[in-house]
Input
Amino acid sequence: MNDAPVEIVVRAENVERVYGSGENSVYALRGVSFEAPGGAFIALKGRSGSGKTTLINCIGGLDKPTSGKVYLFGQPINDYDEAQMTELRRHKIGFVFQSFSLVPTFTAFENVELSLRLAGAPAKERARRAQECLDLVGVGKWARHMPFELSGGQQQRVAIARALANSPRLILADEPTGELDSHTARQVLGLLRDLSHQQNVTVIMATHDPLSLEYADQVFELKDGKLDAVHVRQSA
Ligand code: ADP
Ligand code: MG
Output
């Protein structure tokens, strides 16, 4: 074990997100605070409407808190403009969604390569890294296949390879097992856990899949926009 201080990759300080105004306002997040250390696999659980997606989006800069602060890698991102946010999203954060969101007319390889292209990586490096990421998540031999030729689990692996391509230290996943059967869901959850521990990537995953809780190091429970409880798994 090394004794280096634990890096805090994400810090949320009293994050509130209110949609609409006046009588119609919806309090999606009410004063959420937490810290996510480097290499941790964190599940955000809570029923539908509890604020999971809103929190993921506020952390990833896809949405802005109404008040409160989000720090990524020690920097407050509240005041970032759109260009700075795009830069941060392309280089430092990987996103994984429920519906995989692959480009349907691109091969698996091209989907992963695209995120390297957007980040400005040189062509030769893009090809090497795209294949490396596909291999890492176990779909290397499907590189030349189109998404429709792949199973849901394989497509989600390609999406995870895409999220990893730019070597982010943070992956945000919103219901990544929502469209997978339980056997495949376990494989994807095991993969996310291994990536977080072995590649030192912090993974924050919104989920209402009870299976996820067996894999996460910490479970943050949201209730009506409030962080209700934090459960820490005792490591085996
Ligand atoms: P979850 O992902 O846990 O299902 P969400 O973060 O999607 O929860 O939603 C939290 C609350 O905020 C819900 O009451 C939802 O209806 C509301 N909400 C989410 N997005 C919007 C929006 N763009 N406009 C208005 N209300 C929204
Ligand atoms: Mg959601």
